[in-house]
Amino acid sequence: MDISNELGKYSETIEEYLNEILPKSNSLQKRIFESMRYSIFAGGKRLRPFLILKTCEIFNGDYKEALPFAAAMEMIHTYSLIHDDLPCMDNDDFRRGKPTNHKVYGENLAILAGDGLLNFAYETMISHVFNTKSNSERYLKALKEISNAAGVFGMIGGQVVDIESEDSGIDQRALDFIHNNKTSALIEASIVSGAIIGGANDDEINLLRDYGKSIGLGFQIRDDILDKIGDMDKLGKDIGSDEDNHKATYVSLYGMDSSIEKSKELYNFAITSLNKFDKKNINILKELAYFLLNRDM
User: Fold this and answer.
1) pLDDT by residue (tens digit) across 1-16?
2) If you classify domain 3-293 with CATH, what class do you get?
3) How many whole angstroms separate alpha carbon 160 and alpha carbon 212?
């Protein structure tokens, strides 16, 4: 199976759904809707919503009931990118090959656009729980999984340690904490929440959690590698920004060879977790792990 084509197919589904639900009215606050939609539709792999839809489909045979959660995850991810790019954070000029939100709409509206996407993500998930009579317990568990991953014990917590580690020495424990929370948490939550919605049992969820932790950390290590050797045209963002902002990365702490080796170890662990499944069609997840940990974009 061609992973790029599979990602593209699901990306179209996600974009159609996001276009349908994201506000675009000509009301007094219409400028915030423009800013939110600018960043949402600026491109991207749609990896996290893809993971939600695909793991739900593996266990349920149909991904449609996971669409609100997949859209919410993309909104949460995009809000974090808008805020990451701000001058007070990473001060980046480009994201997904286009000027960052604050370069187009100004810092004040960019902050509010991020806030708007985060809040609308929860509005979308909660509305689905209230409007759907069946499987409400699964939806609430998935909502809790996503909420935890996005909060102070997940992505935000990782961002805090990342900021406080700039211009200072950092050890492996702190670096792993940053990567496991700032990046890996949302990837893991995407895999697990999709499986929860699809009806996976506890043992299956635990195996997928191990898989998610592995590819999530490996994904960030690959990002660290590409920040040194990547192509801006392919990545759609500035190269070398981590070094410019004095951020610790796997490459800066361990070197390129060790970072590549660690990525291979994480790939092998992810595959080992998947090999414990019976009968489920999880080959797509194996192929995805290889694609993510060897990508050039």
Assistant:
1) 678 888 888 999 999 9
2) mainly alpha
3) 22
